[in-house]
Amino acid sequence: MAEQQGLQRQLLKHLLRSSGGISAGELLFDPVTALPGLPLFVRQVEEALRSRKTVGILTVNIARFSKLEDVYGWELFDGIVRGVAECLKEIKDESLRKEDALAELTVNGNVFILMLSPARSTRTFKFSDVLRIKARIAERLDAHVAKTLHPDLLYRFNYFIGSAMMKKDPSVRLERLVYRTIDEALAEATSEQEALVRRRARKLRAILTSDRITTLYQPIVDLHSDRVLGFEALCRGPKGEFASPDVLFRIAYEADLVVKLDAACREHALRSIGRLEADQLLFINMEPGSIFDPKLLASIPARRVPQIVFEITEHAAIEDFQTFRQAVQIVKQSGFKFAMDDVGSAYSGLRIISMIEPDYIKLDMELTREARHNRVKLELLKAIAGFCTEAGIPMIVEGIETKEELDTVTQLGVHLVQGYLMGRPAAMPSKGKKRTA
């Protein structure tokens, strides 16, 4: 045993030397948030229980069901985790007791732990006190994420707070007592998450059953011919919580209703295709999983197939690129076209472009905002426009709202544009080939 421990110590020393001088103490802190890990947290709990009968435990769990990390990459996810950690640090320093502790449960993880200690005058904690603090923390976190996260990220982000009480019990080893209490808090957070998913799923199913999905149509203009190339179909839910398509699809992913919702949006979009000219296109957003829907091809009349362009958004995670590519090729062989949507907004777009060889590339609107005054954005626009020209793929620039933005993209040779300047979304695609604005 002594020989084994000696070997372990030698290995640890070698690890510390090869890691650039990281101290043993630093190994006890999370590298992303710099918060203490579980070993230090246990020591802090032990110290608190020496003078108090009870402490409260809160767990803050950043939910992963929205695939935020898969879609946008671990760097962005780590940045969000750091932001939440900093917010929790501020709450602890400003609103909680000096003896309270904040830690991270797992290395590079998404679960934070707070230990709440009662005042020395009372030495005991009521569960109502823990719930009151839980509500205050939730209020501060809500304000933080609303202020710091882009809307595209905000609708994918969620967190859940669990709570539990820990009582001093000399008959139970401290570490086991801590782990057991953390498990109780995590179970409560998981229960809240599952209840939320079930509640939202019921509402979404009711929306689909009662046919309350609607469609707006926004023109895509060809500046060379001064005509409307086609329209993008934009789905909407009923007024209220489910009005935004972002919210609709976030909940659909949580409730495993993505393909069903996507089919409903597609069916609604096709209801007005008869108003288009024979050579105009209808761009319909498609979640990647819907490419495997056996009803996809049968749902569209054969005479309309050449007019359909499926938009694959870069916001959606694709897990098996090879199988997805094969499915796209089958659909293409049936006469459908594809567009790569929101290029430049996430991190996997170039790979998807190379895999599916789209008929159109749609540039994310954020790249056009103030591009003339932003050198990096302008160079990115030039690079993507140059690539599309070399590859022979028409590029559509979305989000054109000002004359300056239009001038910027046209100077780069772009002639297919979409945005409020060209025409706002409307309940029906306007008849005629000329541009609407």
Keywords:
437 residues; alpha/beta; Alpha-Beta Plaits; TIM Barrel; 2 domains; eight-stranded mixed beta barrel; four-stranded antiparallel sheet; elongated
Task: Offer a quick outline of the entry.
The chain is α/β, with parallel strands linked by helices and 437 residues long.
Describe this structure in words.
It is a single chain. The chain has 2 domains: 177 residues, 2-Layer Sandwich (Alpha-Beta Plaits); 208 residues, TIM Barrel. The N and C termini lie far apart (82 Å). A hairpin with a 6-residue loop joins strand 2 and strand 3. The chain is elongated and about 80 Å long. About 4% of the residues have low confidence. It contains 13 helices and 12 strands. The strands form 2 sheets. It has an 8-stranded mixed barrel, surrounded by 4 helices. A 4-stranded antiparallel beta sheet has the order 2-3-1-4, sandwiched between helices. Helices cover 43% and strands 17% of the residues. By secondary structure, it is α/β, with parallel strands linked by helices.
Instruction: Tell me the fraction of residues in β-strands, as a range.
Output: 15-25%
The spatial strand order of the largest sheet comes to 5-6-7-8-9-10-11-12
Tell me the major beta sheet: 8 strands, mixed, barrel
CATH topology of the largest domain: TIM Barrel
Using DSSP, what is the number of strands?
12
Count helical runs: 13
**What CATH architecture of the largest domain do you see?**
Alpha-Beta Barrel
Total domain count: 2
Q: Mean pLDDT, as a whole number?
A: 84
Structural class: alpha/beta
Distance between the termini: 82 Å
Overall geometry comes to elongated
CATH class placement of the largest domain:
Alpha Beta
Low-confidence stretches: 11-26
